[in-house]
């Protein structure tokens, strides 16, 4: 049981890193011509989808 829990934590950490990297890059690109709220919503949606797809 403990081993299975540890594996899920590692998977969550990896997925979180995918989201974080995506979000940071998206924000930098988006903010050059758009408002913060627009970019926050756009990047969250895009990166959540990318995270779910496992990219």
TrEMBL record:
<dbReference type="InterPro" id="IPR036466">
    <property type="entry name" value="Pollen_allergen_ole-e-6_sf"/>
</dbReference>
<dbReference type="InterPro" id="IPR015333">
    <property type="entry name" value="Pollen_allergen_ole-e-6"/>
</dbReference>
<dbReference type="Pfam" id="PF09253">
    <property type="entry name" value="Ole_e_6"/>
</dbReference>
<protein>
    <recommendedName>
        <fullName>Plant thionin family protein</fullName>
    </recommendedName>
</protein>
């Amino acid at each position: 049981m403990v081993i299975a829990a540890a594996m899920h934590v590692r998977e969550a950490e990896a997925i979180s890193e995918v989201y974080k990297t995506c979000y940071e890059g998206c924000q930098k690109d988006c903010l050059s011509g758009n408002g913060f709220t627009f970019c926050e919503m756009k990047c969250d949606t895009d990166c959540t989808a990318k995270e779910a797809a496992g990219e």
